[in-house]
From TrEMBL:
InterPro entries: UPF0047_YjbQ-like (IPR001602), YjbQ-like_sf (IPR035917). SUPFAM superfamilies: YjbQ-like (SSF111038). This is Secondary thiamine-phosphate synthase enzyme YjbQ. Pfam families: YjbQ. Belongs to the UPF0047 family. It comes from Bacteroides muris (ex Fokt et al. 2023).
């Protein structure tokens, strides 16, 4: 069985946002066992899995990425879409655009402290398109 669904996440401000429940609500029916592949169709946002318990993780991840990739660097050439655009592209490359998660007993098989994050790197990114493919 293979099923695929494309959906739009609720627009969010810049930062790291737990979206596990929103993702699950939008998935096609899950098989007893298989794989979920998630792909974000954007070059200035990413997906990752990280701790879902302490909200300080979200704040710290934002601070780390902003320190690693600064805005308004003099060597940026792609600057026509605003100060946050080129850094957003670089941050998306660092975070990645896809996730693969095992499905066990009809549920996502993630660790107890793991959650799916939308990494929104633009100040106003808008709704982000996700392609979810279930194989099982």
């Amino acid at each position: 069985m293979t099923a695929q669904k494309e959906f739009t996440l609720t627009p969010r401000r810049r930062g790291f946002h737990l979206v596990t429940e929103e993702i699950i609500r939008n998935l096609p029916p899950l098989p007893p066992a298989g794989i979920l592949h998630l792909f974000i169709k954007h070059t200035s946002a990413g997906l990752t899995i990280n701790e879902n318990a302490d909200p300080d993780v979200q704040t710290d991840m934002e601070a780390i990425f902003n320190r690693l990739v600064k805005e308004r660097e003099p060597y940026y050439q792609h600057t026509c879409e605003g100060d946050d655009d080129m850094p957003a592209h670089a941050k998306a490359t660092l975070s990645g655009t896809s996730l693969t998660i095992p499905i066990t007993n009809g549920r996502l098989n993630m660790g107890i402290w793991q959650g799916i994050y939308l990494c929104e790197f633009r100040n106003r990114g808008g709704g982000r398109r996700i392609v979810a493919t279930v194989i099982g």
